[in-house]
Each structure stands twice: as C-alpha cells, then as structure tokens.
Amino acid sequence: MMQKRSIGIGWSLILLLNPACGQSPTETIESSEREPTVNYGQLNISIAETEAIVPQDLVLSSPTEQQSLEAIEALSDETQASLTQSSGDNDFLSQLNVLKSTITTKDLSSCTAAMPSSFSLAQDDFGHATCFGPTITGNDVDIPSGNAGIWWDYADVTKTSGEACSSEAANSLMESVGAYAQTAIGLISFVGCAGRLDSLALPDTVGESVDFTDTISSVDTSSSNFSLSSVLITYERDNSESFPVFVTDIEGSLTDISRDLTKSFSLRFKHVVQSNTFQSYSGVAQFQIQDFEDSRDLAMSLKYKYANSNLQYRYRQAFVTTDSTEYFDSTSNEVAENYYTADSSWAEVLDNVDKSGFGSLAIVWRTSTLLVFNAQTQSDGTGSAYFGHRDDSTSFGSDDFYTIQGMACLPVSPGIQYTSLVQKQSLSLDLSSGYWNLDDAETLFAPTATCDSGTGDNYIGRNDGYAKSVNGPITNELESIADYQSDWVAPSIPEVVLD
C-alpha cells in the first residue's frame, strides 16, 4: 500500500493562498523532464502537461463584487495585477490569481489553493440580501420573502457604505451558486496540480484512460473538507474540429464542518483544448452531490468557453429526487431542463466577462414566478443593474429567457401581472473602497398590480430586523421596459463542440 504523504492542509487562508508565509515544511515534488509532445488532433501537447485538463481562467464571481487592490490597480493602470494574493477576496482577479497559482506551484500543499475555505451542504436562503426581497404586508397584501425586488436602495440599508443594493444582491446570488462551481473547479485544479507534480502523463491515444487514483489517494487531505476515492482521465476523442476532448471523472466526499455533514459526490469535466498554450478552450462540467437535502440530490452543470481573453459560461443547478436516472441532457451535457419545476429550487447563471472580470451577468431563478436579475460593469468603472420578472412562456435556456419581461410589483399567485417596467440602479466603482456605489435609483414601487397606489395605502417591508414603510399616494419610479431593452446588452450563450 502506498504511504500517504501529509501536506499539512489547514483551512487557514494565509496557509493556502500564500504558502510562503509561515508554512510548515512540506514535501516538494519536482516534475521530471518534459515528455516529448504528442499530436492530439490539431495540437501538439506534452503528455506531462496535466494542466491541459484544467480550465485555467474559469472563475465564477459577481461583476459587482467588492474589488481587491489588485483589481483597482489594474483598472487604474498603476501596475499589473499581482499573481500573489494574500487575502480571501471574492472578486474575479483575486480568485483567478489563486487558480493560476495551482498551474505553476512546485509545492504539493498549494494544489488545494483553489478549493473554497469552507463548504456548505445546505442551500440556505438563496441569494439573500437584507435590502432585497423582504416580506411586504399592508392593504390586504402579503408578499413572502424573496419575491419582490429592491426595497432599500443601499446594501446596508442605513446608506453608510454607499454600496448599491443591486451590488450586494448580485454578490449574494453568485455566492449561492459560486461555492459549488468553485468547488468543482478547485477539485479539477487539484487533480491537475498533483498529477503534474507527481510526473503523471496524460493518455495519448483516443480511448485510452489513465488512473490517477493512487497518486491522489496518497495525498493526506484529512484536515480539509474533501477526500477523493477515484480519479480517471480519458482521452475520449478528437471532436469534429479536430481538437482533443479530455474527460476527467472524480468521485469522493465533501464535508460541511460547521454542520458535521459528509456527502458523496461525482464530478465529470469534459474539457476541449484548442491551443498548444491552453489559452483557448471550452468544456462542460457535471457535478452531483448525493442526498444533498431532503432526500434530493443537487445536480449542477457548468458550460464554459474561453478565447481571446474573454470568458463565457452558463451554470445550472437543480434539486432532483434521488430516484431520477439521468440528471444531464445527453446532447448539451447540461442539467436537463425537465428538472426546472416549481419545487426543484433551480437556478441558472449566464455570464460573459473580460480578463479583469468586467462584463454582463444574468441570473434566473424561481419562487412564485421567474425572477430575473441583470448586471453589467465596464472597465471605466461604471455599471448598471436591473431586476424584474418573467412568466413560463419562454423556452428555458433561450436568449429571451435571461431578459426581464416586466416588473411584477405584486408577485403573488394566481393572476400575476407583468408591467412594462423594471427596476434599475446605476453604479460607479469607488476606487478607495472597491465597492460598486449607487449613483442613481429607479426602484420605488407600490406592491400592487400597477406598481402605483392611492392615498391612505400603507405598506411595510421587513427583513433581518429592519423595516421600511411606503405610504400612499405612490407613483412608481421605475424604468420603462423600452429603455431597459435599449441599454441592456445580454451575455452570449457559450458554444461548446464536444462531438
């Protein structure tokens, strides 16, 4: 039996993200001399370059996340973003730097750097933000939590920080899905990193598989929140464009330390390399956590494409009954749309960002109706965010699916009415704090079918111990759907060729 090699992993951010600072001595495995290149369709790749299986620029982060010093310096053209990150920042560049570090490190302990520092095996309150979606009562109105939109214009309700509510809402929504996606990315980067440091070779013949299990199981991860029981990498085929398709199958378990829960998972990455330097690629990840909640599995898919320093991805998740036989569509390889039901707690994210993480984001999820959140940021430090609703008439996953049909100011079934209005906030990046601050808000509404109310109508929204009253007469201050459609540039759906 192979002896386990302790890598001294603790979930200290300083240890994982900046291992040079105060780290105990650990074993360093030097890669052997590079193997000769092998012809994979159009490409010539060394079989020792296990980073060929890793999407090296795939990060799920809200474009309105508080920007780190590195991001602000890059935006200000003061310096290049550093590849050493010493904080736990959630912005795009900070997470990207950590992921990139697993491609270059020579220290086995750093291979886990892209794994989240903790993992929740409970969905909790999806996308919860104090300023967004409160319970609203008054004048025979009773709107449950999570259905309405922006009620307070500032993230902290008291206006002291200046951060827009839409910024906090986008961040919270992305954190609800990003932890699972980043876990999948962290796992594949760990496998690629450990394989590289142990001088393992990729399969070089179509149909050939290489078992990485012995190498991975020899790494002691007992102090972390995951363990792997099986890792298999297959050179599945050259696709119709003559690019190699590598399939990595990973099985293991994840531990929610705070809840003392451990759940089994399976993860499959189908990764299509499209350049010898791995600067162009695409793929689909399929991630399944068994018995996640109430005898239901959590099924997730992540379709991605990276080219010309731009990243596109679509993330899907749904809770499905454990007696289901196939969670993923055989054509798209994504979570099958038949699981998008009223009780499956599904969510979908479509995102296009540039090399600094600026771009457009669309999030769709279901409560009493479909909720749609859009946000876009630019490299000049400006941005905008929109919120509204949509009915079920649009095909899931179509271009229109990610756009707002109209604000349902009284989102209570039955008989929900969709107006020709949306909520909008204009944003600007505060270079001193990194927050996306509020410049202008078109968010005021009454919880009625028309979004207006008469004299004597009184409503109160409550969330997290805060309360705000809105008293009639109320004339809404929302943006027209026509202006929204003119201003909003929707993200594109990534095209991935696997066959």
Structural write-up:
There is one protein chain. This protein is α+β, with helices and mostly antiparallel strands. The chain has a domain at 47-133 and 159-406 and 480-487. Helices cover 14% and strands 33% of the residues. It contains six helices and 22 strands. The protein has helices spanning 13-17, 69-75, 92-104, 165-197, 213-217, 481-487, and strands at residues 5-6, 37-40, 43-46, 135-138, 141-143, 209-211, 219-220, 226-238, 244-256, 261-273, 281-293, 296-307, 310-321, 347-353, 359-366, 370-377, 382-390, 421-429, 436-444, 458-463, 466-471, 477-480. Strands 6, 8, 9, 10, 11, 12, 13, 14, 15, 16, 17, 18, 19 and 22 form a 14-stranded antiparallel sheet that branches. Strand 18 (421-429) and strand 19 (436-444) form a beta hairpin. Helix 3 (92-104) packs parallel to helix 4. The relative contact order is 0.15.
